[in-house]
Amino acid sequence: MKLTNHLSRVLAATLFGLGCHTAALHAQNIMLHLDAPQGTDAQTLAADIGTLKITFSNSNDFFDTSLYAANTLDLGSNYYYDRNSSKDKYHKYYSRELTLNADDGNGNAWWGNTNKIEFKFDNLRRYAGVRVGDPIYYRIYSPHFSRIITGQIDPTDADEVTLHHTELVQARRVTFMPPVDRDGNAVPAILAPDLRIGTCNGFRGYNPNMQDLTEPFARYAYKGDTLRYLVVPNSSELALHADSIVVADTTTCVTTDYRKAVECRFYITDSQGQLCPVTNGQLASVYYKPQPGAKGKGNYHGYGCYNLGGIFLNTLTAPDGTHAAYALPGRQTFQLRMPTVQTTDPDFLMPYNADLGYILGEVTIPASTEPVSLSIAQSNPLRVTTTLADAVPYADHLQFSAYTYVNPPYSWQENKQMSVACKEVSRQVKGNDLVVTTLVEGSTYPYLALNAQYGAQSDTIASVLSKQCCLYSYPGDPRTEFSLTYKNFYDGNFNTLPAFSQLHPVKFVVPCHQFQTGRMLNLFGKYGQADRVAELAEHHDGCAKQLHYASADPIPYDTITIMLPEGKYDWVMQKDADEANDAPHHSFTLGATDTLVQRLQPTDFALLRVNCLGVDSIYVYNKVPEYQWYSLSKLTKGCMYYVREAIPLSPGYNERTITWREAKLQKDTLYSLSYWLEDPVIWLDEDFSFYTSYTIFSRPNNYLRLEKLETATPDSAICISTGSKANLAVWSGGTFAPARFFTISPSEADTTVTVYTQKTVRVNFSYKGGRVPGFERLNMCYGNEQTHIVPNSNFYRRSRMDLEPGHYTMSGVVSYEADATGEYVTTPFSIAFDIEANTPTTIELCPDPTAIAAAPADSAPAKAAACYAPDGRRISTSQPGLNIIKMTDGSVRKVIVK
Asked: What is the pLDDT of residues 825-835, one digit of tens each?
């Protein structure tokens, strides 16, 4: 896949040199020869690397390292869309091993396939899903190599060819040793041999392109290359270490020695410049240099981000109680989560600069044999004085908060809103004006937000009045004190806050269950330049008012108080855009002295409470339908329950308690049974009339059994609501045994169904003397129309059912594809027959094939009278696909037009 833009090209170039040697060759038998690095003996290579994996593919996407970086994939994996092979129908891969050989004839080691027929072009093409005439792409990757080797093989008629790669000849061995702790002992660690392509989220979690460093790890790189690496010791007192080396012409050994580390003591500086000990929270060392293009899936920022998650530096503390750790000299980043500090600064605010309560700080660690004190962050309180003219009537309801927006690595997603520390210093009334002084932590370019809260009343939730002010005029603004008025506050559409003298509270009284079921209040009007006045007001946390069953009005209400300027407004309760269009809208005009209450009247909505098995279900409608379908199919503790009722609705409050009736099964001891409950089967015909059809059954997972020696189901084993119509299905489990579907109609009375009182008889079926081809429709009844006989899949293979003696009716439509014309033919049939005990028989579904097949001599051949699409629409002529043709003789044909 070609790199699509300049950023992708830059990323692919900077990740590492991609040694792509394209073999524009043609071969049937392929020999691959990969020269090993010179100056390293075969025994060492075998210990370091051993065999190599070569992967063939039908796509060269796995050449593009930017695709791996974007999805935070390990370079040793195959590239798939969305990192999920089950969703990727395009990429195909086939891998083989390349053997290490000690001598290529010139004393040099090499990797390759020893048998040239092993890589036969046609076989590789087939295994890798390559189309005829397309090239085969290949890729050789090892975490021990600093470059990936790639190429392609083009098809031809040539007998054989050798693909010779020499890229690794000039590579030199760099050995990373396990780090040494303060006592000179080796400590387990993980290694990122290339900082640009690794990522870490926890020790030995999903850490792409990182290696265990419990023993030496060899990396083969090229003379003059700079290797930037990172070592993460598994220690609660040793910080990670990032460093670099320039590859020499000889073997290099790299050891991270923490005996040279410095004891670092970490503080947060208060607004007075004093170092405050950090006595709580979680300290960790991190490295965040994310590569461009990452999608940031899950908890991964992409390549170049190392967050050690569960490894906290919590063992070492300074004499004053602050967190401490050992770190090697240089620049290093640490993070604190939810810290507490010891400070006497009255204006101190915690300088959080990352989402979820984190402080990230980069410090310089000097070379020192003595402990050093380091400040990770400094409190930067901004004093904001806000004068709100004519706001005294709302003084008890106005509140201030602060927030900002952060991006990775300071959050897991782009442009994430984050709360900022803020506290009120004073609130004064001067005449009719309200003057509030607030301290806001200013390290992160914050916004001051003004909100109106009406939470003091028990039945009232928060207002949707919300405006904000960006305190800094520009990044780096040096001011620490600000004076604001209401004119400084605006919303997301840059509509400024009206003067408080022009604002009036409007109370919206709405059923609590409107909010509990996910609906919101949407308010429209002329507010500045916007037509929509307010954000969607949602249900407040912790409110879950219950229905008052015994009262005259069981519905509990909530009140939303919204401060609005004078004008005309429209409001609606909605869950989505469709409901907003259908639900009743309410209009009002707000005057200069009005205190309005807007109430959602019972005529404008319906609330339905359904009590089933002691559990209430609540349904709310803003456009009242005629009825609500309530359905339940439940199997618990050996009892099955079934409800499917249409409950009539009227405006306001409605309720229904589901009542039950019992169905019992009785049988002889001839067979064991499975039984279950199903919805009645109803289909829509071409003329939009309804019909029944039972062509085949499938036993669901939720079923119960009646064993062979049991003669009746236990009490309450089958419970059907009194208002439901259900099918009680029974099956003996035999290979050719059909199921019986007993239709149970709505009633308050219990019912008993008797089954299998006689041994079944083998019955074969035929159609025009041959096997039954299949049914488009089938209704087979035993004794009466309330008992349907439904075949299983074996009937359509063997045309056989095992039936109880008795009288049967069978009607429907046989369907098959005519051999002569290829048309899809449907033929109605209807028969009745009796099965006698102990008498196997054959039933012909077309007793007089000649009479059905032949038309009277004086009658005209049937012609097409009308044509319909599969969805029932009448069409003027046949169209590609399935067509339903109604003939002049009344028959119906299904014809497929290609």
From this structure: 888 999 999 99
Burial class (CB in 10 A: 0-12, 13-18, 19+), 134: middle
The string of pLDDT tens digits covering residues 169-198 is 999 999 999 999 999 999 999 999 999 888
Instruction: Name residue, tokens 């409050």.
Output: 653
878: DSSP letter: -
**C-alpha–C-alpha distance, residues 817 and 83, integer Å:** 44
Q: Are 725 and 744 in contact (CB under 8 A)?
A: yes
Please, where are the H alpha helices in 596-647?
Answer: none
DSSP state of 64: -
In the sheet that 751-755 helps form, which strands lie side by side, from edge to edge? 627-636, 639-648, 718-721, 660-667, 751-755
Long-range contacts of 100-106 (CB under 8 A, 24+ apart): 100/36, 100/42, 100/45, 100/46, 100/49, 100/50, 100/51, 100/52, 101/42, 102/42, 103/42, 104/33, 104/35
Half-sphere exposure of 347 (CA within 13 A, CB side): 22
Spatial distance between the Cα atoms of 583 and 138, rounded to a whole number of angstroms: 60
- Sequence-distant (6+) residues with CB within 8 A of 186 are 177, 178, 179, 180
Joined together, the tokens standing for residue 79 give: 């590239």
CA atoms within 13 A on the CB side of 23: 27
pLDDT digits (tens, 9 = 90+) for 862-877: 667 777 776 666 777 7
The SS3 assignment for 851 reads helix
- Which tokens sit at 893? 């044909």
Q: Sheet harboring 874-875: ordered strands across?
A: 874-875, 864-868, 881-887, 892-897
Strands (E), 689-821: 690-691, 704-706, 718-721, 726-731, 739-744, 751-755, 761-766, 775-782, 787-790, 800-803, 806-817
282, HSE (Cβ side, Cα atoms, 13 Å) = 13
**How far is it between the farthest Cα atoms of the chain?**
118
What do you get for the CA distance between the two ends of the chain, in Å? Answer: 36
pLDDT in tens, 240-249: 999 999 999 9
Tally of residues, the chain: 898
Contact by Cβ (8 Å): 728, 744 = yes
| C-alpha–C-alpha distance, residues 409 and 335, integer Å | 11
CA 188 to chain centre: 36
What are the angstrom distances between the C-alpha of 424 and each of 145, 152, 272, 399, 487? Answer: 59, 68, 19, 9, 20
Task: Measure the CA angle with vertex 185, ends 182 and 191; round to 5°.
Answer: 90
Nearest Cα to Cα of residue 521 among 564, 574, 460, 452: 574
Quickly list H helices, 519-651. Answer: 577-582
- CA 120 – CA 165 distance, rounded (Å): 19
